[in-house]
Specification:
Helix 3 runs antiparallel to helix 7, helix 12 crosses helix 13 and helix 16 packs parallel to helix 18. Among the domains are: 204 residues, 3-Layer(aba) Sandwich (Aldehyde Dehydrogenase, Chain A, domain 1); 175 residues, Aldehyde Dehydrogenase, Chain A, domain 2. It is of the alpha/beta class. The two termini are 38 Å apart. It has 21 helices and 19 strands. The strands form four sheets. Strands 1-2-3-19-16-15-9-10-14-13 form a ten-stranded mixed β-sheet, with helices on both faces.
Length: 577
């Protein structure tokens, strides 16, 4: 029997005991409650100053932040894999703050955010707002050929769009006075701070941030990085296990709650622990937590392969693309690909799956640092993991699964390094595009993100663009990635991040509400991110990128202080990747 022991898992057990005393939580919440009206009235200039201080604080602590995250996850410093903790930690946080500062400055100067792209009509008939590439961060150079559009909900029009921009900052909007409890995620280090900043700077609420025991080693780093907010009384950070979270949730001074985590945690928070009492509450609509709640809860993320005449080069690129979605962060991502959806009649199906497995075979196994990983691996594969480096689990692709025989692959996010493949019966690309939205919407759990791989010839065929547009319109996911991982939408920070807006407290799907969304759009339906079928140079997030750590550091420097003269310095590590 294999035993999984990793440094972060050990920290999880060790640090749960290092809890913030209840008396301190009471004190912190009293301080936040005393500051919430003052923060609600604070000027834009002061908020911009605080955001700039947090940006500089992130840069000042970045080296320690990256080093500690790598140590906890078993990543060797100075290797390409270090790029994951740079890009998903300080880089994502700095990008968020840079875009936020720009938006706040636009509101101060012009009365509302200035959108960077065109506004038109989406295939579904609703308003479509281009939000990427952004201004000032050289996105058109770093993400050549990429575009992101926010599809607004029906009722939002070109004429009334201004009424759906930055609601907390509209003239005459009442000052917000609220204390938000943010329950931080344990897997990706930028989630907790950017969730907190979304509440602070976009919604105008002061924040009590509870660190997740899995990565609470980052808490002292955040205390230094965001000291300006702490000094002003607008942010407090606490530590501990479920008992600390429960105490804070029930506290009378907490007005609302945000959680990034599992649907099981969401259920327990809203309806109470499993059992007859929970079911009685749900049936009666009587929540155990009578506070506003927002959340992001993951999903069984599908990668939809639209059948088409792919070249060898296109299959190779996309195989590595899928491998990246599986391997990134040891697959402990709420948006890691968990179900590849193919057409059984596609002649290249087995060839493509073989290529994915071949890439994964070249990617070293990772420390299974997230608690419960071994148990989940056993349950989803039905076997023990093959022998390998201590504390690691093997990348696993399970082909041709069926909901009747393996319902867990369809109904539950595995949150471990296991991905499944299922095939639809579809004689043509047209039939596949017609069938796939209903399948992924209704048969796979959650609605956070979905990706599609599509050959240009499919869209160029007679009526092809209309069919593809209809497919996009029917997909009910918060972020849709065309040819690229939907998780890029998380990292861009200008796009809203969250589940498709159909969730309820009783059935939250992938969560309620949005974070990031630095253009502060209200009335969002989903984001559609698109990019080329193949790219060169190799994307930073590909697991075989040889100089990813250097490229990530230089990109972090660019986001810190954007300047044209820094662009040539990115070319060397980009081209050598």
């Amino acid at each position: 029997m294999t035993t999984i022991v990793s440094s972060a898992a050990a920290l999880y057990q060790e640090q749960v005991a290092q809890t913030t005393p209840r008396e301190t939580i009471d004190q912190f919440l009293a301080e936040l409650a005393a500051a919430k009206s003052r923060y609600g009235r604070t000027s834009l200039a002061n908020r911009i100053s605080l955001a700039k201080a947090c940006l500089e604080g992130t840069i000042d602590t970045a080296e320690t932040w990256i080093a500690e995250a790598c140590r906890a996850k078993g990543i060797v410093a100075g290797t390409p894999l270090e790029s994951e903790e740079t890009s998903a930690g300080p880089m994502a946080t700095v990008r968020y703050l840079r875009l936020l500062i720009s938006t706040l400055d636009d509101i101060q100067r012009h009365g509302q955010p200035r959108l960077p792209g065109q506004i038109d009509t989406a295939p579904g008939g609703q308003l479509r707002v281009q939000v990427f590439p952004t201004r000032g961060l050289f996105d058109s150079v770093l993400f050549r050929g990429f575009r992101a559009d926010v599809w607004m909900q029906p009722g939002v029009t070109r004429e009334n769009l201004g009424e759906h921009l930055a609601p907390a900052y509209r003239p005459g909007a009442p000052a917000v006075e609220a204390v938000a409890l943010v329950l931080g995620a344990g897997n990706v280090s930028s989630i907790a701070p950017t969730d907190a900043f979304s509440k602070l700077f976009q919604e105008g609420k002061v924040v009590l941030l509870k660190m997740n025991p899995v990565n609470e080693y980052l808490g002292p780093i955040f205390e230094r990085a965001f000291a300006a907010l702490i000094r002003e009384g607008y942010l407090r950070i606490i530590y501990g296990g479920a008992d600390v979270g429960s105490y804070a949730l029930a506290h009378e001074l907490v007005d609302e709650v945000h959680i990034t985590g599992s649907v099981y945690s969401h259920e327990t928070i809203v309806w109470g622990p499993p059992g007859p009492e929970r079911e009685r509450r749900k049936a009666a609509g009587l929540a155990a937590l009578e506070k506003q709640i927002t959340s992001e809860l993951g999903n069984v993320s599908p990668w939809i392969v639209v059948p088409g005449p792919y070249s060898e080069r296109e299959l190779d690129f996309q195989a590595e693309n899928v491998a990246a979605m599986i391997a990134n962060n040891a697959s402990f991502n709420c948006i890691a690909t968990k179900m590849i959806v193919t057409s059984r009649q596609w002649p290249q199906r087995q060839q493509f799956l073989d290529k994915i497995e071949a890439v994964l075979a070249r990617v070293p196994r990772r420390q299974a640092y997230y608690p419960g990983a071994l148990a989940r691996f056993r349950r989803f594969t039905g076997r023990e993991p093959e022998a390998g480096a201590p504390g690691t689990l093997p990348w696993t692709l399970v082909r041709d699964v069926h909901a009747e025989d393996s319902p867990h692959f369809f109904a539950e996010e595995s949150f471990v390094c296991v991905c499944a493949e299922t095939a639809l019966e579809a004689a043509t690309p047209e039939e596949f595009l017609d069938r796939v939205p209903g399948f992924v919407n209704d048969r796979l759990w959650g609605n956070l993100g979905a990706g599609l791989m599509v050959h240009p010839n499919v869209r160029r065929a007679r009526g092809g663009e209309e069919r593809f547009g209809d497919c996009l319109a029917r997909l009910r996911f918060g972020t849709i990635g065309i040819n690229h991982w939907p998780a890029i939408g998380y990292a861009l920070m200008c796009t809203p991040w969250g589940g498709y807006p159909e969730g309820t407290l009783a059935d939250p799907r992938s969560g309620l509400g949005w974070v990031h969304n630095t253009y502060m759009l209200e009335g969002v339906q989903k984001t559609v991110l698109s990019g080329p079928l193949t790219m060169w140079p190799k994307p930073l997030w590909f697991p075989t990128h040889k100089t990813a750590d250097l490229l990530a550091r230089k990109t972090l420097s660019l986001y810190h202080r954007p300047a044209w003269w820094k662009i040539p310095g990115l070319l060397w590590p980009a081209l050598r990747g």
